[in-house]
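### Sample
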Amino acid sequence: MLKNSLLSKNNQTNLNILYRYYSNISNTKNSPKGFKTGTFACGLKKSGALDICLVYSEKECNVAAVFTENKVKAAPVLLSKSLIDKFNNKGFQSLIINSGGANACTGPEGEKNANTMSTLSSNLVNAKQPSLVMSTGIIGQQLDMIKVQNGIKKAAENLKDDWLSAAKAIMTTDKVPKLVQKSVEINGKTVNVTGICKGAGMIHPNMATMLCCICTDADISEDALKSALKHSIDYSFNSINVDGDMSTNDTVAIFSNGVAGNQKLTDTKSTEFLNFQKCVRETATELAQMIVKDAEGATKFISIIVRGAADEASAKVVANSIATSSLVKTAIYGEDANWGRVLAAVGYSGADVTPSKISMWFSAGDGKNIGIGQKNDPQNSMQFLKDGQPTPKDEERAAKLLSNKDVGIIVDLNQGNTDYTMWTCDLTVEYVKANSHYRT
């Protein structure tokens, strides 16, 4: 049964969980060399908040990008994809992003507006090639281009090392900015990686699942950069779910300008490349998890760990089935250890599973090591199913485990050696409220 206390305290719980996760976000000294950002509030948002972001590199960049698989694609997605194809992933110096309007399903006028944003911003920073473009906001409304063009001009006049403002400028229903900055040593040179993203709703795998810009001063070939991005996305942005809806605008792009001066990364099997890829993957993973933690109405961050799968495809199918189950998500919201809902989601996932082999645990925390060689349940976990059979359980203790803000669901299929982790959130009354009044 849904707890009345959760209903009454939901708003405050949301604020508390966000403060816990985001109170330390700030600009750091790990900004990639040669990049600057400019922002402005041009008036697209009714709140008057920042809504234009220009990212600029003083040197030409190699670029890799992945776009939404939705058949309905916004004008900026179509334009950016065509530009990357036209210029073979290289020579770019700028990216222009607006929030407060998706420029999706806007026809020829929307395409013209995306082109205007691209050429205006690239001209203002004297870039040789047009800017890539990202937009986010309500679908089906034309952008106020007088405001947008003024905003782009103002952003170009205010270029500096301020990634936090850039993260704020691309927010829509996000409650907090999402910024991650890391560094790694490559051939004796410090290579910096910075990522910003936005997303809180319409979040579901198959790339992309929001807007994200990652910039690095690494010197890396186009093919190696594409390989690093694809790997990183598979285990980050393609491993999260909020509501099962895929947007029309989703884009993830990574820019590398080579200013760090490292020996150029070309061999995707080299130790240097793998270290760089790990840094990008960690950046993307932290950003992806931030999206789930900031999900509309969410009070729980849920790690879903599928173990013992025959192959990665099966593990992904099972994890995704659990993550998208409304019954599982509402049970976690109500702090009800209803393991039957999880087992049902495993069963209808489409994966070839054997019910008599399945074991399952719930945990407080991420559940990373639960169920691995343990004779008894650790204090932060509880087993509910062993080899297909229910285990004795303490409902009061189970509810206490699920009262934590971080919750783990661990499922061992006992069919192989492949593991896969996915992250999702609970489904709450506040999510319904947020999305039933989104346009108002």
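The first strand starts at residue 35 and ends at 40. This sample (Arginine biosynthesis bifunctional protein ArgJ, mitochondrial) is used throughout the tutorial notebook.
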